[in-house]
Task: structure prediction
Amino acid sequence: VIRVGIVGATGYVGSELFRILHQHPSVTIEILVSDIDAGKIFSEIYPHFNGVANYQIKRTEELDNYSLDCVFLALPHGVSMEFVKEKGSSKYKIIDMSGDFRLKSASLYEKWYNQQHIAKEFLTKAVYGLPEIFRTQIRRSKLIANPGCYATSTILSLAPLIKNNVIQPQDIIVDAKSGTTGAGVKLSKSTHFSETFGNFSAYSLSNHRHTPEMQSVLKQISSKNVKMLFTPHLLPIDRGILTTIYTKPVKKISAELLREMYLNFYHQEHFVRIINQPPNVKNVRGSNYCDIFVTYDIRTNNILTISAIDNLIKGAAGQAVQNMNILFNLIESTALNQLPLYP
Amino acid sequence: VIRVGIVGATGYVGSELFRILHQHPSVTIEILVSDIDAGKIFSEIYPHFNGVANYQIKRTEELDNYSLDCVFLALPHGVSMEFVKEKGSSKYKIIDMSGDFRLKSASLYEKWYNQQHIAKEFLTKAVYGLPEIFRTQIRRSKLIANPGCYATSTILSLAPLIKNNVIQPQDIIVDAKSGTTGAGVKLSKSTHFSETFGNFSAYSLSNHRHTPEMQSVLKQISSKNVKMLFTPHLLPIDRGILTTIYTKPVKKISAELLREMYLNFYHQEHFVRIINQPPNVKNVRGSNYCDIFVTYDIRTNNILTISAIDNLIKGAAGQAVQNMNILFNLIESTALNQLPLYP
Amino acid sequence: VIRVGIVGATGYVGSELFRILHQHPSVTIEILVSDIDAGKIFSEIYPHFNGVANYQIKRTEELDNYSLDCVFLALPHGVSMEFVKEKGSSKYKIIDMSGDFRLKSASLYEKWYNQQHIAKEFLTKAVYGLPEIFRTQIRRSKLIANPGCYATSTILSLAPLIKNNVIQPQDIIVDAKSGTTGAGVKLSKSTHFSETFGNFSAYSLSNHRHTPEMQSVLKQISSKNVKMLFTPHLLPIDRGILTTIYTKPVKKISAELLREMYLNFYHQEHFVRIINQPPNVKNVRGSNYCDIFVTYDIRTNNILTISAIDNLIKGAAGQAVQNMNILFNLIESTALNQLPLYP
Amino acid sequence: VIRVGIVGATGYVGSELFRILHQHPSVTIEILVSDIDAGKIFSEIYPHFNGVANYQIKRTEELDNYSLDCVFLALPHGVSMEFVKEKGSSKYKIIDMSGDFRLKSASLYEKWYNQQHIAKEFLTKAVYGLPEIFRTQIRRSKLIANPGCYATSTILSLAPLIKNNVIQPQDIIVDAKSGTTGAGVKLSKSTHFSETFGNFSAYSLSNHRHTPEMQSVLKQISSKNVKMLFTPHLLPIDRGILTTIYTKPVKKISAELLREMYLNFYHQEHFVRIINQPPNVKNVRGSNYCDIFVTYDIRTNNILTISAIDNLIKGAAGQAVQNMNILFNLIESTALNQLPLYP
Result:
């Protein structure tokens, strides 16, 4: 049995981790940590867990009193690296959900995050936790940098194209749309119900922090410099990311060839579904699936790739558990087979 | 292993039945039936099941080619009784989701449904499938009348009061609010997105068909004539029912006593959670839970009971599987332990 | 021309006041006040007013530099009475949107608001600003206590019944549902989009502050002690209140008689529409209408009254302008004829 | 006074036309036409107009009994050209909301609409009713082809760039998102509330009918062949279009220069607001505004233009009234100054 702790348990990603891990047959959740909510009962913060479990939230320092095999960090960037700096050499494996260890270069981190990196020595040890691409490296790692939600949907959408040298790697338009849970549990004007309801807008134009993450991971995959314009939008829904991607082919291509290429690329992947209609976010709600559709517009010579994920699951907590399953040699889909909740 | 068929598989209740039964360790789904959609592939109608299963929809008459232990009827009222009239004496057990066998009296049925009952001989054989109240009778039955969604939330809310003779049984106000999936997959102006979005209204004033169902089941429980005014409202959400119930105590009471009474009444029930804050529908979304809160307003001398369910699960498909588990002597919560999807 | 100031201009009621008054042919908006947002440009806070007007927000003390005929207070309760205490004897008329002057009794105020009343001398001077009921008194007043949103819909729904002695005045159930703008611009967990979206729940059971307001105004109308149980619910929409009211007749009644009684009661009222179908909130969105439907359930002997308003307009800013029109002898509907925005 | 008729009055665009025209000081609405709903009372179909007006819907043939100055056609494409073929030479001016007269070329029409054009003789007489671009031609015309909703937001966004030769005219990506009222009053699975709520997806990939409309109008403006990939998405809201456009500069440019260019281009336009933050759809809800934001991403060398409109107003009924005001030499903004309804 794998003994786990969740640090930052009282955010949305933390509570989703709890939901999934609680149903995992090989896991016991030993401790839930949140310095802010320490002392409270978990099911009072999240009453949907009433009657399910009766955890009292602990402080970070109490973590050392537990024998743990795996610790999930559902912390804001900046806070994660403090934790890793201090406890990164503990016996347990760490799966970090923040952006702190996703970039290999501290200077790139400092440029996009406007913040010094204080745990640089761990940057090279961390493996980017996108199982469909880096499964082998994940298996051998002790520190997993779990991908961002936008990054998951974008990289999975582009990997077949970029790996197979089908597109111009420096002319990529990513127009992404996310539900509000991506912005977390923290109150803000832009996620105040009266403002967001019936509304829609773009944000973080030109400077969203997932941009360098996506570019450098795609470079790792293809050994080519990748440049993309990434434009996120805020959808007035709770869960779900839909990403629409426009790329230019460098060779003769067709919709059929593209579809076949994607089917081949992912044919052994349980959680990636190559579908033959444009995806929608509700078809993956509550599941660990990433649905991808690809086509070619012959008139304008554009490849169009559209993908959908549940940002809290394949975009965060579900993918983290998938990584844990790999780290501990379990069947990769364990506890992740919950079907989408539709309608 | 239990071999099941789902008739009316392409409606919302049918697809939820599939979702739950597909994950049931003791069930094989042998056949999906829909006369309207026969010939189609199930995952083309419901792409959230892409990659999960590959069923072709069959016609009702093909049912006889299969050896089945249990058949779920997710059919409109009127159609269900035709099926039962014809096949009600088959070897398999039948769990009917329609209103056709919920009332014991054919004349009551004919009054509220404006339609003749053509399978009266089965009315007395049918057991009302509310496990928390009728578990013993369900176990021995061959034909289950699965309760309506509003009825489930209302009866579970009122049962402790009525059974313990705490309230005036003829002065009950039920103000209920349901998401749109309760109205099914059928297109209508009142569930056209542009009309329903940002909107809210009451409907079926004084004449909703769950009224006689609730009254007669509560009479069964209490041996008293029960009279309630039931006012349903349409919520601009997909899933969830919240029911607010106002009753008059016949004896001295307090919020604490009421809470204790409810805790006692349901203390062995896995799926009923007596909570100490007003419930909300998202805390049960995707689960088989019914959350109930009770209090007493001393100033106006009213008991206030509020409950929440997911109308497609505890209000329909989940409860049907709960009934199947009882019928086949399985652990009652098998395949029903999925935790609520929040937020 | 009427020179007005809006104090608390940067809340939702304040911005709606601006929207309506900006289009008023007899009004000039002299000053917008908010101590918190002083110095900012109004259209930067509310970009929907871009290109419309270019006000800089001022501090309360700057109000004295302007010659004003009418001041609207869109302030939280507690803050309003400080303003009135200090400036209540100024030349201008005051229309207060808070709860501070709606109750005639300071002790009642202190009981329900948990706070001392510091401007008691103005309580008797204030007139409750519900034009359909208190038009004559409003005309002569200098201080208007603009009704609460729930109170507006409830009192307008009950006035014909209570005035005509049709119901038991101490057995009233009010089950109300409001959109989130009723909770204002202030961030809170219960109006965080991820929490509220797809959700629904009751709140403030037994202790909502509009209860004594409604009871005492209805007593003013009828000279009878009125007792009601008021249960508000939070709708996952931005605007709109739907109120469902259950009362017991004291005499023989019918749906037709009731309807006629309501038609008579409001036959000269421009903003009250007695309709013959259950109302919905979108049919009044963006307008100053209050739609009311009344019926009688003979089976259970209940009168059912349902009403709908836009909480920010007839429930707040629109009604305030209606009061201003009365105070200054203008046609009562001036600037308030905007038709509902549907769908 | 201008005597108008609305043909197709019972759709969403027809009802919005009524709402706006009813408040127009120089207009009398003489007749509302709908062959399907003939005989019904308008306010029974649209109860938000209760108490406002009491029209009985007429059949098309009854139109000839009225002396009219202007007829609005809110009809599906295909039906409009039948009307124009038959009555296009009447005395009254016609403002057609369908796609039937927006393309100058019958063969282009037939290719994208899969349908023969039966009123070709009117194609050259029709003027494309986008006032900000074609005001002069509109003034002299008798038949206005009112632009599509997507086309309005896209053309207004691109006109400054294309007119000033700033971009490559054949490398344009338009990623647009529309609320459901754009799909009209007709029931369909894709606008069934249970399906659309909490959902988001792309549709009509590569083949949406507004594509040739936008391309040919932009060619008219610039004398250059224009090629764009247009990808519409369905937003789970009722009203609003947000359009995100990616173009490639052909000369050195900056965000500041672009902004200035847009300000100049539209500096006399009442309904186009060049704003300095990304727009959102709620800031224009209920109004005739088009909000536009432009910027330049130096890293990837893309120009990013984002615009927002209310699809039923600036995208349909409001723009039609703007055209009518031009046709009859009224102040162009008459009846169109309603401010946005926010929040």
Notes: The mean pLDDT of chain C is 97. Chain C touches chain D through 35 residues (CB under 8 Å).
